[in-house]
Design a protein that fits this description.
alpha+beta, 2 domains, six-stranded antiparallel sheet, two-stranded antiparallel sheet, thiol protease, NLP_P60_dom, Papain-like_cys_pep_sf, hydrolase, cysteine-type peptidase activity
């Protein structure tokens, strides 16, 4: 059983790195194809790590719910503005991210709402959706049949770190979404 597990791990390792065809003997190549046939095309060894990182990232962000909004601040003892909150959360996990909401549009990899994942960064206009200039950011908190929820620091009604539905108001302000994890 131990040998089978080691062989299986070895096969998955090389299949996920794309080297199965050139590294494995021909007799194992068919086995690799069968074992990996049902894996998503993007499956690789970092997929679990990314999932764990997004869970840890959201848990950390959630621990700051209720910290007050404070313009131009990224200090949990004083408060956060939107980009201060997002940059503080990502920086805690070793990511080098910008401090301003405008700079987030040039960070990470642009994706679509249909391909959004927990941990992605939503980029919005400022509070006036007619002025199509970046002015707000938040982190995708959850995605389910009800839609997307995101965690952010808002100067609005909640006046601090809160979880908000990606509702019609925020859809009208939506500019883009980027993946950093």
């Amino acid at each position: 059983m131990k040998k089978a597990l080691i062989l299986f791990s070895f096969l998955i390792l090389f299949a996920s790195t794309g080297k199965a065809q050139t590294v494995l003997p021909a007799q194992y190549q068919e086995l690799v194809k069968k074992l990996t046939a049902n894996l998503p095309k993007s499956a690789n060894l970092n997929q679990k790590e990314s999932s764990t990182n997004s869970t840890s990232l959201i848990d950390f962000a959630k621990s700051m719910l209720g910290i007050p909004y404070r313009y131009a601040t990224s200090n949990p003892k004083i408060g956060f503005d939107c980009s201060g909150f997002v940059s503080y959360v990502f920086s805690n996990f070793g990511f080098k991210v910008p401090r301003s909401s405008v700079e987030f549009s040039a960070t990470g990899k642009v994706t679509s709402l249909e391909n959004a994942k927990v941990g992605d960064v939503l980029i919005f206009t400022g509070s006036n959706p007619r002025v199509r200039r970046i002015g707000h950011v938040g982190i995708v908190y959850s995605i389910d049949s009800e839609g997307i929820k995101f965690i952010h620091s808002t100067s609005g009604k909640a006046h601090g770190v809160t979880i908000t539905e990606f509702n019609e108001y925020y859809k009208s302000r939506f500019m883009k979404i980027v993946t950093i994890l």
